[in-house]
Amino acid sequence: MFTTLIGARTNVLSYYGHGGIGKSALSKHLEGIDLEVDSEISPQALPPMLSLRYDLSTSSARDAESILLALRAKLAAANVRAPAFDLAFAYYWAQTHPGQHLTEYLSRSTVSGRASEMTDLGSIMQDALNDIVGQVADVSTFGVAGAAFRLTKGIAATVSRRLDNSKILRNCKYLSEALNEVNMVDLRMFLPHFLAWDLHQAQMNHEGHAPARTFVVFFDSWEDVQADSGYRGCLEDVLSQLVFLMPNVLFVITGRERLRWAEKESAAYLTRSGPNFWPGLALSESGEKDQHLLGTLSHKDSLEFLHVATAARPIEPDLLDALVAQSGGHPDYLDAIIDLWQGALTDGSPLTIQSVSGGLPQVYQRVFRGLPPLERDLLLAASLVPVFSEEILSAMVPQATPLQITGFLHRHFIESTMSDWLEFRLRSSVAELVTASRNSSIWFWSSHQVRSALSNAVNQLLASCLTLPSVATLTSNIKLDQAIKFVISLERTGAELPPRTVDLIFAANVAGSAGRLFETEFGGESSYFSNVLRSVIALESSGVPSIGHPSDHEPRWLVDTHQVSIARHMLLEGNLSGCSEVLSTITDSTPTIAHRRSKLEILLASRSGELIRGRKLAENWTVQDERSDLLGHIALWQGDFVKARNYFQSAADFARSAARDLEYARGLRHQARVEAIMDHPDVESTLSQAQKVNLAVDSSIGLAQIEGTRGIVAARGGDTEASSFLLHMACRHFEESKANVDIASLCVSAVLSARLVSRTDLFDEWHQILDRVCLNEADSRLYRRTIAFVNGSIGQARQGLARDYDDPVNSARAWFEAATPRRKVILPVSS
Fold first, then answer.
1. d(CA 328, CA 450)
2. DSSP readout, 112-151?
3. What span, in angstroms and rounded, lies between the C-alpha atoms of 503 and 469?
4. 466: which strand partners?
């Protein structure tokens, strides 16, 4: 039975071989073949074969959630119900994506593109979920919470206790435990089991005996998954478990390398490994049952291939026949023969059967020796970097002419990356041979030459994607992702990164790349550089790493980037004095670091309640969207809500036009909050757009801020329960991100909301929360003043606040009036 969680799996086929040999073409051909199925299927049954193609070459699509949703979308398109998965996924989603509507998430994803028949997966799952919960648990209020696809812990626990009420789900093993799971990583890993269980119900024929439908999933570009493997929890571990938990789905995997799941060494990074789990993937004397090497050509086809390639000066027939026999039809061997033939044309050395003897490594060594000296330098340079362009290769070997570089790029050991920017890479097998040969007399480059070449490569990379250092942005998000991965790869090899790399780090932050760069891009054991990079770009998302002390050899710019990150997190945590102390230690004069330090000083002034001083500093700020955002906050706390809204709207508009996604997300959510405070008619539309954009940049803090704003909106609508629920959920999510300063600000929103619904009993609760998160009175001064204003303490506004407010009394009145419920005018009914 498919529900068995032990035993062997035979539901995976692997086709592998080097690039360009036709793996993707074969995969697409297999996808188009109709498999034989039971002829007794009823006319009303679903199509006998469902298939999903999933390309893993795109970073933004290489995560477990996207893959699971693509599988679910394909089933939804075929009208397959999946109640067990929908229920378990809803619980997982509510805990890991607080405040995020699944429908909005799907609207920005490429899931619909991978399952073109899908119309509205979010609505399908939501409707099914409402039916399940209503039937099983009789939770009459779920429809309200369910509108946000929210299955709270309380409702999930109720459902888990009452599964026997459901004819459909009462026999779904492990579902009850899943709805009480506290570890969401474990739950996510187990979600495929429930999708397989649902599929099994649909696969049974009308008599309930045998599978009636086949579901085939094609994973293409598997080499991109393997490149990031090597530690428990990597994507290959996640996907191998998905395959294991869905034995009623056939997975066809194509890539450059064979799957190593059956090898004992894979136990270091796979939860389930070895021949007992994957017998068809094990290498034995009889070969591999379910793994197939592509690319060995027949003798006839090999002869034809070499005959055409060497037509300019044909190889003597007997020698050609012997060369083909020696190659065994292996494409790498045949390519090496062509390279040797080209070398023979150049230097006059004869091509003999001995030229291709001794195995492929020896053959390629002869190819390398036959290259002109300058091409050897280009080959060595190419082996030092993961990918490259003509410009990067030229920077690494400046003595090479454009014509020489073009000729080198036509060598058979150069592969296309299918990218528009970093278009080339060295074939992995060749790169390994070159790396192993670097210390020989042929390949010797001094350590100084290697450092210089790598430094030139990084500088060329940065020059091609960055604009002005002080306001660095990237020309595209695709370039951003590639550049980040490039510098991480080089830094891991010991390359010395130039100071301008800091521009790339903060450009990644401004462009909101945290939602696209996953843990797999950084590896299980990240370096100091990788951790600093992630701490900067992931400030507003979950999973910010803890960073140890730098070693003595770390460059000053990187250490100060770390200090900027620490100061930002201290400010976020509400530790204003600690933030000030850290800022005083930053000495690097790199323009980007100085820029970030100055911005933190403005934020520190405004959050300390020094609003007039903060405004004076912000008025001279040169970056338009940041300037408007800074001034918008100061106007907000001054109680000038109209001016604040205008500033935030201006910030959002500029950031959007400049493709500065994170600043766009910030401007929108701040605009929504001030609109909620002033009861602006556009607040709902602003909230909707803010939700989409903050979700797109993976801002946990932004989404929690939006949740808090929805709490104000609910209070204005008189919905005390919904308001309290949203505000408390926002508080919990801020706590998870250690965003104490946002909790302090939320306390103001909560007290304002409590006054709007006439619940003065909630004041003490939120005052206690404020006391808990603020380290001292100085850190909470701004928020205590504003709460006093909200509660109508005009007297406090007259107590020496002229230093910080333009007009303290008017500020107090503005906040008090914002928290005063609007009276509805009831017009008389005409007779």
1. 37
2. HHHSTT-S-HHHHHHHHHHHHHHHHT--TTHHHHHTTT--
3. 6
4. 474
Composition of the chain by helix, strand, coil, percent to 5: 60, 5, 35
Note whether 601 and 583 are within 8 A (CB).
yes
Give the rounded distance of the alpha carbon of 504 from its chain centre.
18
With H, G, I as helix, E, B as strand and everything else as coil, classify residue 204.
strand
CA atoms within 13 A on the CB side of 818: 33
Q: What is the pLDDT of residues 356-412, one digit of tens each?
A: 888 778 888 888 888 888 999 999 999 999 889 999 999 999 999 999 999 899 887
- Tokens coding 774: 């603020």
- Which CB contacts under 8 angstroms, 24+ apart, belong to 6-9? 8/276, 8/277, 8/278, 8/279, 9/243, 9/244, 9/247, 9/277, 9/278
Beta bridge partners of 16: 255, 293
CB 340 within 8 A of CB 356: yes
Tell me: pLDDT of 535 over 50: yes
DSSP string for residues in 264-307: GGGGGT-SS-STTT-GGG--BTTB-SSEEE-----HHHHHHHHH
Helices (H) and strands (E) in the chain, counts: 40, 7
**CA-based R_g, the chain, Å:** 31
Both tokens of residue 311? Answer: 């037509």
For the chain, the first-to-last Cα distance in angstroms comes to 73
Cβ-based neighbours of 611, under 8 Å, separated by 6 or more: 634, 637, 638, 804, 805
206-230 burial by CB neighbour count: b if 16+ within 10 A, else e?
eeeeebbbbbbbbbbbbbbbbbbbe
- As to burial, measured by CB atoms within 10 angstroms (0-12 exposed, 13-18 middle, 19+ buried), residue 164 is exposed
Q: How far is CA 719 from CA 140, 526, 753, 815, in A?
A: 17, 47, 10, 21
Count of CB atoms within 10 A of residue 446's CB? 8
The phi, psi pair for 119, rounded to 5°, reads -95, -60
How many beta carbons lie within 10 A of that of residue 329, not counting itself?
18
pLDDT band at 545 (very low <50, low <70, confident <90, very high): low
3-state secondary structure of 388: strand
- In angstroms, the CA 77 to CA 124 distance is 10
Alpha-carbon dihedral 525, 529, 532, 535, rounded to 10 degrees? -50
Closest CA to 228 of 57, 12, 480: 57
Give the SS3 label for residue 466. strand
479 vs 458: CA distance, rounded Å: 13
Cα–Cα dist 531/512, whole Å: 17
Per-residue pLDDT, averaged over 665-673, amounts to 95
> pLDDT-based confidence at 827, cuts 50/70/90?
very low
With a CB cutoff of 8 Å and minimum separation 6, the contacts of 509 are 536, 537, 539, 662
Region 548-565 average pLDDT: 86
- CA 232 to CA 223: how far, in whole Å? 18
User: Tens digit of pLDDT for each residue in 97-146?
Assistant: 765 566 655 654 433 333 333 446 766 777 777 777 766 655 443 333 33
Q: The tokens of 195 are what?
A: 């999708």
| 410-416: long-range contacts, CB 8 A cutoff, minimum separation 24 | 411/339, 411/375, 412/335, 412/336, 412/338, 412/339, 413/335, 413/339, 413/364, 413/367, 414/382, 415/18, 415/19, 415/20, 416/19, 416/20
Whether the Cβ atoms of residue 343 and residue 373 lie closer than 8 Å to each other: no
Secondary structure string (H, E, C) spanning 717-781: CCCHHHHHHHHHHHHHHHHHCCCHHHHHHHHHHHHHHHHHCCCHHHHHHHHHHHHHHCCCHHHHH
Gap between the Cα atoms of 342 and 351, Å rounded: 10
Contact 502, 586 (CB under 8 A): no
DSSP code, position 211: B
Average pLDDT, the chain: 80
Element (H, E) at 52: strand 49-55
